[in-house]
Amino acid sequence: MERSIVFAGFGGQGILFAGKVLARAAMAEDREVFWIPSYGPEMRGGTASCTVIVGDEPIGSPIVDEPDAAVVLNPPSYAKFAAHVAPGGLLVVNETLVGEAAERGDVHELRIPCTRLAKDAGDDSLVSVVALGALVGYLGLVRPASIRAAIREVVGARRPDVLAADLAAFDAGHRVGARRRPHEDRVTVPA
Amino acid sequence: MTTAPVPVRPAPTPVGVAVRRHGRRVLMKGNEAIAEAAIQAGCDAYFGYPITPQAELLEWMARRMPEEGRAFVQAESELGAINMALGAAAAGARVLVSSSSPGISLMAEAMSYMAGSEVPVVLVNVMRGGPGLGSIGPSQSDYFQATKGHGHGDYRVPVLAPASIAEAMELTADAFEIAERYRTPVMILADGILGQAMEPVELAFRAPPRLDPDWVLGGAAGRPPRVVRSLHLLPEDLERHNVHLQAKFATITDREVRSAGEHLEDADLAVVAYGTAARVARTAVARARAEGIRAGLLRPITLWPFPSAAIAEVATRVRGALVVELSAGQMVEDVRLAVEGRVPVAFTGRTGGIVPSPAEVVAALRRLDAATGPRTREASR
């Protein structure tokens, strides 16, 4: 089954990184995967996004009409992507920055204090890693061990000093996501 | 005329790249994958000038070519890059040049010179929106330019259009082989999506065998001098040269045309699309089939030579064809020429760096299905 996830936030929030880690984890599980950044003319400090498509068959369209999930880390991203998530899909929202957004009734909305959890993990800049943890904890897209291995590969080589914080941030997000994961009888969301 | 041996570099060590450590399958950006495939194919020299969305190709070459002891030049302009390529290829080097749409336009003059003087160079165009500087978004609006001639004169250039990053790597090796076998420039026509996206690829590379050409300017010691030129002032000479070129283009048309089909066996409607548009079409075909519309996909892999025969054959079996492009409609003209009015040929596309969504393509298929449905067909009899 093909699943598409949009990651969006301020440049510098680790949006492309979170997408790459997910893509790498999916690849390690021998899944098909496609990662595409928005590379349009964005202002410095503007919104960055990337889309990751994970599937068991070769990925077709790189353009997704309605993503199955969106990770939105700032208000402009919420405004831009929240409306596009497929009905019954998942929104992972950085509650710290996206305060009083109107909730959509027909999607699962995971509101997470990403900044606080990242800070607790040791680095408040790791908001996207917390959100990735929540996404994976909730959806079970890939095994958490695959994500941890991907983080070790990517971060371990370049920034071994922040590796422990990255792993802790992922675990913190994953705990929240897994706890909120719906039981079978709660999967249906009222339209 | 005696033939001096062409200096042949020892076969490159297969895969010494950093990405190898992650195992057989690695995530690679399209631009980087094409660059590495070229290196592993034995590319001796790269010339380029930065432009989005192909910049990572040049950046990869800037790092990797010196590592391999080969030539990398970031030229002062696209004109400089393509003419350096012309010179290096005339001297027998396996040469890659890359750019994006506006940069390719600047290279058009040299493309004509390379075709005229029969110099093999592989040129990558990672297309962006036009005309003019346009945008940096993905596009397929350079189809006319790529397939109908960039510069002046009666010439054709083989154009290879990958639809995935893995295929882009294979076609990069093929491009060098076709270029050298036929003494012609070859273009790889990609787009911003293929350049910017990452997909898992297997690190399996191919280095085409080195030919032993008898025309290369490799030093005239011990043999008569050779000339590589496009200038033939005597009309009879130039016509003879053109006859020779046309015969070569006919051979390429016979031997090198490629396309791929999916779900065409029982299809009522055929979607024709290449590159990124073909991937959108593949998803749309699956969705259309799920709602009972029997669609299939015919994907040209060579845009010149164009798979006219394959399209003509499919046109005898379907009720209609739909062409999908990231353009205002360019390849659709060649599809209509191939179909020769046998069935209606519809078009759907987006411009400006916007990629049509699967939903838009499905909607176009529904319209075509309704317009050509059995009831309509019975009524028209």
Describe this structure in words.
- The complex is a heterodimer of chains A (191) and B (381).
- Chain A is α/β, with parallel strands linked by helices and 191 residues long.
- Chain A is built from six helices and six strands, in the order βαβββαββαααα.
- Chain A has a single domain, classed as Pyruvate-ferredoxin Oxidoreductase, domain 3, CATH 3.40.920.10.
- In chain A, helix 3 crosses helix 6 and helix 5 runs antiparallel to helix 6.
- Chain B has two domains: 217 residues, Thiamin diphosphate (ThDP)-binding fold, Pyr/PP domains (Rossmann fold, 3-Layer(aba) Sandwich), CATH 3.40.50.970; 121 residues, Rossmann fold.
- Chain B has 14 helices and 14 strands.
- In chain B, the strands form three sheets. A seven-stranded mixed beta sheet of chain B has the order 3-2-4-5-7-6-12, sandwiched between helices. Chain B has a five-stranded mixed beta sheet with strand order 9-11-10-13-14, sandwiched between helices.
- In chain B, strand 10, helix 10 and strand 11 form a beta-alpha-beta unit.
- In chain B, helix 1 crosses helix 7 and helix 3 packs parallel to helix 5.
- The longest helix of chain B is centred in the middle third of the chain and has 21 residues.
- The N terminus and C terminus of chain B are likely disordered.
- Chains A and B meet through helix 1 and strand 2 of A and strand 1, helix 8, strand 8 and helix 10 of B.
